Amino acid sequence: MPPPRVWSFRRTDPDLEREFEQRLNLSPLAARVLATRGIASSSAGRTFLDASLKDLSAPADLTGTAVAVERLTRAIAGRERILVFGDSDVDGLTGASLLARLLKALHADVDVHVSERTVDGYGLSEAGEAAVRRKAPAVLVTVDHGVTAHAAVGRLQQSGIDVIVTDHHQKPEQLPPGLAVLNPLFLDPAHPAAKLSGAGVAFKLACGLFETLTPQQKQDPRLRATLREGLAFAALGTVADVVSLTGENRLLVRHGLKQLAQTTVPGLAALRSFARLDGREIDAEDVSFGFAPRINAAGRMGQVDLARRLLLSDSQPEAAQLAAELDRLNQERRALEARVHQRAQVKLKEWPADAAMVVLSDREFHAGVIGIVAAKLVSQTGKPVVLIASDGTTARGSGRSVPGFDLAGALHLARDCMRSCGGHAMAAGLEMDPERADELAARLRDIARDTMQPPPPATLELDGEAMLHQITFPLVQELRQLGPFGQGHPQPLFAASGVELAAPPRRVGVEGGHLQLKLKNGPHVMAGIAFGQGARADEIAGRKVAVAFTPRPSTFAGNHGVELQIADVKPDPGPGGR
Q: In this structure, are residues 505 and 570 in contact, taking their beta carbons and an 8 Å threshold?
């Protein structure tokens, strides 16, 4: 059961809310949500609601784009081999695929490589560099990695391979010595493209290539369709990598989700079918729970080439077969994850309870799923967690953090214990000699003790108060226009107090882990589901409650029904509660 949280209401300007109601024709609740999201005028609100692709910044705003485009254009004209080297996660795979698809449409000699992270390590590792040399390209383009691979980039560049690095993870003090480096972190933080994902950066480079075409070439239906389909790939990578859905990320995802719903790319269409999303609108949650796990399963289970082939396939029968295999692998991944999670619980009991962070290593851990399990342990313990899997020769680790602790920075401080490490503040990975795992655990524990900031209180940020009669299907449609929602731009969350239970709370799901409620506010009755809060059934039974919720289209009440997805529920502390 989630720990109790303090409810906090976002502050807004009532005059701004009224302006949005009148000039943007929004309901009071939708106007309030828009006002809580940093939109300061009705003109800015109109731009936000329209979310036009015309508002995307120029690709050239990313330093290095012009040089990269010029070199790729020469390679295309001269039929030089171009190798696109993507990371093995969804962000890297989709970014590499969209860029390679456009290069192929431009008649480039292009190949795509993705390393098995569980075997070859991350990015331009020793194995990754060797793979590049075997393929002997004239131009190498990294996607979603490479910005910290100074030595490997330098060696490849010196050997005659022009290296174009596209990445978004870190802002190093020294750039890798490639021909060009594209990284949105070098933009002003206020720039709308400053938080692009790896796939987002790849899409920008693709747009830069498209801009150099002649007016006649730009009218080629095949090229235009390829770039438009690139939006679907960019949306997948952006949502799956949990970057902030603000600025240009929101634009790319909003239009990319629409493209994903109608895509004819065989691999994406096959994944959509297996996720049972054909014929309906697709939102960010559908990517997180439908598309991303199946693509990620390939890398986690040591068969990343299946995902690479699927995303590049132009054959519907081949794509259907590959998607079926990924679906099977995802089921295997879930079973493996459960076993590793169970083993981690055993190891956790041996770890000092008063330590500021958790670092566990075990030969029964599997490198492909330790990141997911680490995230679960973070939720359980409220502490940063690093899990390390070892095969006896090489140990690979993956970690997840909490606000106030820069995990990538902590690994950097202990880098002498490892062969390599990388990532960002909230998620990072490493490779090391197995015999040094205990040493690294002790170092990280000390670093966390000395540097971790006090954790912020568990707070639920609410957009405003609402009565159940205000929660209508038209409101749900209005709120959808404010999306897509995700990291940095959360789902609208409202609070209702003095709510009666129209029926006893009902525990549902595995081991009764979830709570199904029928809520009554005056004559209005609505159904709601509170995931992970089944244990609160006895606490609220027979009492008036306060609920924090997001309104969603109902899957049971017909085409115009609404239900509540309840983020928190508790006995009403007000005068109406008892």
A: no
Handedness of CA 320, 325, 331, 333 (dihedral sign): negative
Instruction: Please give the single-letter amino acid code of residue 259.
Output: Q
Q: How many CB atoms lie within 10 A of CB 316?
A: 13
- pLDDT number for residue 172: 84
CATH class entry, domain 351-451: alpha beta
Cα 117–chain centre separation:
18
Give me the phi and psi of 25, to 5 degrees please. 55, 50
Weakest mean pLDDT among 112-126, 178-192, 267-281: 112-126
- CA 227/CA 27 separation, integer angstroms: 36
Which tokens belong to 224?
């235009």
Predicted confidence band at 537 (pLDDT cuts at 50, 70, 90)?
Answer: very high
Q: Confirm if 561 and 503 have CB atoms less than 8 A apart.
A: no
Give me the pLDDT at residue 119, please: 78
Q: Which CATH class is domain 55-327?
A: alpha beta
Cα 311 to Cα 267: distance, rounded to the nearest angstrom: 5
DSSP 556-568: SS-TT-EEEEEEE
pLDDT at 2 over 70: no
> Taking a C-beta distance cutoff of 8 angstroms, is the pair 522, 548 a contact?
no
Q: Which two tokens stand for residue 352?
A: 């000092």
Tokens of 112: 């795509």
Closest CA to 453 of 425, 419, 417, 430: 425
* Domain pair 6-50+459-571 / 55-327, same fold: no
pLDDT for 560 beyond 80 = no
pLDDT, tens digit, for every residue of 561-577? 899 999 999 998 765 44
Q: Are 499 and 469 in contact (CB under 8 A)?
A: no
Q: What DSSP letter does each residue of 171-205 carry, written as one string?
A: --SS--SSSEEE-GGGS-TTSTTTT--HHHHHHHH
Measured between alpha carbons, how far is 528 from 130 in angstroms, rounded to an integer? 54
The three-point CA angle 93-144-256 to 5° equals 55
What the block records as the tokens of 252 is 């790319």
On whether the CB atoms of residues 532 and 513 are closer than 8 A, the answer is yes
If 0-12 CB within 10 Å is exposed, 13-18 middle and 19+ buried, where does residue 11 land? exposed
Give 383-415 pLDDT, tens digit per residue. 999 999 998 889 999 999 998 899 999 999 999
Cα 495 from Cα 475, distance rounded (Å): 15
- CATH architecture of the domain covering 6-50+459-571: Beta Barrel (2.40)
The residue ranges of every structural domain in the chain are 6-50+459-571, 55-327, 351-451
CB-based contact 12:40 (threshold 8 Å): no
**Residues 78-131: tens digit of each pLDDT:** 999 999 999 999 999 999 999 999 999 999 999 999 998 877 877 898 999 999
pLDDT surpassing 60 at residue 578: no
User: What digits encode the pLDDT tens for the residues 504-535?
Assistant: 999 998 888 899 999 998 888 999 999 988 98
Tell me what the pLDDT averaged over the chain comes to.
93
Q: What pLDDT was estimated at residue 397? A: 95
How would DSSP label each residue in 447-493?
HHHHHPPPPPP-EEEE-EE--GGG--HHHHHHHHTT---BTTBPPP-
Strand partners, 83: 111, 140
